[in-house]
Amino acid sequence: MTIDYRVCSGCGSIIPPGSVYHCVRLVIQGEQDVAPDAAPSEGPGDVLTRMETEGDWSRYAHDVHWERQAELCTHCRDLLRVVAEPFLITEA
Q1: Where would I find the beta strands (DSSP E) of 1-92?
Q2: Residues β-bridged to residue 27
Q3: What is the distance between the alpha carbons of residues 35 and 42, in angstroms, rounded to a whole number?
Q4: Cβ of 60: how many Cβ atoms within 10 Å?
C-alpha cells in the first residue's frame, strides 16, 4: 500500500493525505504599450517584430513569459498572499 502525500513547494513540509493544500500558478506575461504623447524609439509591436526577425526567441523568452506552479501548505499560501498583495490590481 502506497501512502500518497504532497510536499509544500514553499517550506518543504509534508502535506498529509486528506489535508488541504493550495495549488498556485503564477504567470508574468510581457506586454508592450506606448504612451500616446511619447515618441519612443520603438513603436507598438516593434520589440516583438524584432524578436521574430532575429529568430532567437529563446533569448527573449524570459522577458516575455514566465510561469511557475506550486503546491503550498496553508501557512505558505498565507505568506504568498501578504507578499503578493502590493503587486496586485484589484477590480472596483
Answers
A1: 6-7, 14-15, 22-29, 65-72
A2: 67
A3: 12
A4: 16
- Could you identify the residue written with the cell 501512502? 3
Nearest partner of 31 among 65, 56, 59, 55, judged by Cα: 65
6-57 pLDDT, tens digit per residue, is 999 999 999 999 999 999 998 888 776 555 544 456 565 666 666 667 666 6
Region for 86 from its dihedrals, namely left if φ exceeds 0, alpha if ψ lies in -120 to 50, beta otherwise = alpha
What gap in Å lies between CA 24 and CA 9, rounded to an integer?
A: 10
- 14-15/65-72 β-pairing: unpaired
In the chain, where are the structural domains located? 6-31+44-85
Q: What phi and psi, each to the nearest 5 degrees, are found at residue 66?
A: -140, 130
Q: Is the pTM of this model over 0.70?
A: no
Q: What is the residue whose three cell numbers read 519612443? A: 40
23: which 3 cell numbers? 495549488
